[in-house]
Specification:
32% of the residues lie in helices and 27% in strands. Helix 1 runs antiparallel to helix 2 and helix 2 runs antiparallel to helix 4. It contains four helices and five strands. The two termini are 27 Å apart. The radius of gyration is 15 Å and the shape is globular. It has a five-stranded antiparallel sheet with strand order 1-2-3-5-4, with helices on one face. The relative contact order is 0.21. The protein has 146 residues and is of the alpha+beta class. The protein has one domain: Heat Shock Protein 90 (2-Layer Sandwich).
């Protein structure tokens, strides 16, 4: 399917940039008439994906970069969060509720992403990075609210 519009933001892998990523995605997605709850769900999913890149992918090293690419299609938005960090050895295990490589974390990031988005796809290669793609369906041909 052909995209209608795409934007990309690259942020330094610092926790304070998670809020920027949320606002960036929300501003772009506000092109269509979503409910406040739907927009909040998307923001939470984006926060979780970006947090995972920073915390797990880069092990909180602030000198790395995270790409956030948001694409609008006719009837859905696709948000991809990419890092070039350590990668995920076992994606299936990483997506299990309460699994985390960090004992101080709850391990619910992927659970939140899956519950708030219509589709979640994860690709990863050890020592090369991870890409998380989030998809949210919307009514076709919606224009921005007035």
């Amino acid at each position: 399917m052909k995209s209608i519009n795409t934007v990309k933001l690259t942020i330094q892998s610092l926790p304070e940039n998670i809020a920027l990523a949320r606002v960036f995605v929300a501003a772009f997605i506000a092109q269509v008439d979503l409910t406040v709850d739907e927009l909040e769900d998307i923001k939470v999913a984006v926060s979780e994906a970006v947090s995972n890149a920073i915390i797990h992918g880069y092990e909180q090293r602030g000198d790395q970069w995270v790409d956030i690419i948001v694409t609008r299609f006719d009837d859905y938005f696709e948000i991809t969060v990419k890092d070039t960090g350590k990668g995920i050895e076992n994606i299936e295990q990483a997506m299990e509720p309460t699994y985390s490589t960090d004992a101080d974390r709850m391990g619910l990031g992927f659970v939140f992403m899956q519950s708030f988005m219509d589709e979640v796809a994860v690709t990863s290669e050890v020592n090369k990075g991870t890409s998380v793609t989030l998809r949210k369906y919307v009514a076709a041909n919606q224009d921005a609210p007035n």
